[in-house]
Write a structure and sequence with these properties.
This protein has 710 residues and is of the alpha/beta class. Helices cover 44% and strands 15% of the residues. The strands form five sheets. The protein has a seven-stranded mixed β-sheet with strand order 3-2-4-5-8-1-9, with helices on both faces. The chain has a seven-stranded mixed β-sheet with strand order 10-13-20-17-16-14-15, sandwiched between helices. The protein starts with a helix and ends in a 42-residue tail after the last helix.
Length: 710
Amino acid sequence: SNVVTNMARFDATPGSQLKPAKVRYHQVDGNSLTIGHVVSKTPPPPGSTSFHSVEVVHAGGPVAERLRRAPRIDATYPVRFNELPETGCLPAREFAAIFEVLEGMMLAKANRQSLVLWVGRPDKPELDGFAGFLGMLPFRGISVALVSADAVRYPDPFSYRTPSGVLEHDANDPARMGKCCVSAMFGPLPARSFTARLREWAPIDVQPPAGCAELLRLPFKIAGLPLPMITYAGEYEKGVAALAERISAAYPAGSLCPIVSCGEVVDRLGYGLDVLAALRERGHAGHYFTHKSGETSKRWAEYGKPELLGWVAQAKAAGQTPLFIAVGGGCNGNATGVVAAMTGAAFVEVPTTPLHYNDATTSAKKAFSLVLDGKIRAKNLLGTFYLPRLVWCINETFLTSSTASVHSTVGECTKTMNMLADPSSAAGRADYANILGANEFASDTTRILSCIDGFEALVHFIEDAPTREAKAAVLRLGEAIAEARAAAQCGTETARAAYASLCEGRRQLLQRFRARFYELPTAARVAIDAFLTVSNKEIVGAKAMFLAYEDPFEKYRALLFEYAHTLGHAVEAWLAGAIDTARASGVAADIVEAAVRNHGQCVGMAVVWAGAIAAELGALEGDGYVCHQGMVYLFNSFGGFSFGPVRALCDALGVSKPDFLREVLAGVRLDNKRGYCECGDDASVDQLVTHRPGRMLGSEDPNAEATLVF
């Protein structure tokens, strides 16, 4: 009967999974309020009956001072006090203050089972809006209790803003998937309950016309909400124009303020400026924001710039909708998405790498990493859940990807293939029968293995000497354009004409670069197209299988997608810092460049390590083990998943094996998934494949439940 019940769950056709949040306001006397009372009235985190710690955050005031001085009667959990820095009603300082407090809490090992207790002031009730942001940003979840001293108005637990009005959050917006960041409220007013009123989901809906070969929409949903994921397979310039047309059609003239965000490399390629120019031609003037590229720059300070937040303030003052358009790779999309979420802006993603398209955009998670002194302490630790209104990918932008980026895509694919294999098969259906509505998106991820020829052809094209020189020429000219941009904006007509000439030169260089691809033999082009098409379709389908209905917030069964990630993240974070150190120390360039490994490459290496661990434990052996490891080795003909070059870099830096392991494990213990299961600092909870790919070890802990396999 369990099998029948589970298959009915697998084959179900559920609708929207959004549920209006409810929050209780408790009447209390501020003069007698205790932390213990707040803890007793605040709902505990899912799967737990108590809180791991209490983090009191305040901006001074009598209630906070009394709580700080009050003796502790119940000492079963640690209590730490954190004071919010003065912000002066300035959005950039508000932005910084939120992250400074949260970083301190995370370093003190606050996690999903912690309670953040905001204590307000009677003379400054406008500060209470900070409470929600403190609960919004640890995206794996943290409980927040708001103690308000306002005796006139109830706080709104669903819609709030900081004093500047620039940072705002509205849980009634379905882009936030019904997530409410405040668990309970306390104050002097009579007790009552609040219920959210969710609005209708309104994406920028794109339905490709029948018979249109240039537009492809990949089936995808999160929490039952359809997310338009569009592949434009035609010419690049027509793809940019088509994107601008769709955005323009969704917003009345003059009502939109687009803010295009991209990193240094994409800026030099001109992709971001092309999108902004196309929107300007259609009556939507906006702004252009560039930031440093790379994982070590995926930090809040790189994005919380006064000018960027000032543009949002201007748009809101003018009654316009700010729209952030993230053009680039996953770091840019993730970080820009956090800024969009914190400002309540609309959001569109334009991925220019395969991994950003089929991995990063298929998750509502948007996050910054914890980066201190140029070193990544923990990947993706501070972020939120926020849906883009549209994902628009122009295939020709993938041609300017690096080989590391292409390997990164495959590394993530090997993780998914080993985790899921073929859920559309009879064995796969049985393995994942408890996933609600999975049949709608069940895919055969192992089809990617048949596309090895296309993967190798794409790497050969990217690594071909004339291709590399053609791209280098574009980047050199792009650097000159970046330098000339400021002069063109505030200079003479001559400066503007010179700038326009440089931009036209880059456009022509890129056209010649793309022409090289179409000069490839037909078989090579067909194989490359098949590799991109199949990997995108199957990986997007795999993500939708879990996120569409079962686990859109990736807290339970969808945690399987973190297979090999905890260790992979830690190695990636350590390596990013080591690369920077090596370059600054004058280590030979060939050693440094050979050791560069992007996110998915570190995941791919970690898949091999996870397989070895499973084999040592006796969980994976024989053909199952060979198949598991072989999925990575098949795609390693160029050495993209080999650890040897990283070992050589360690030797050049004088880093011993014990040093490497100690620093990597320190990163593991700050991973963003902490708090799902109880374990000590010297222990871990592992995800491993057992018997064969597609079959994962299960757990009796409901917070770690993944499948029914034991």
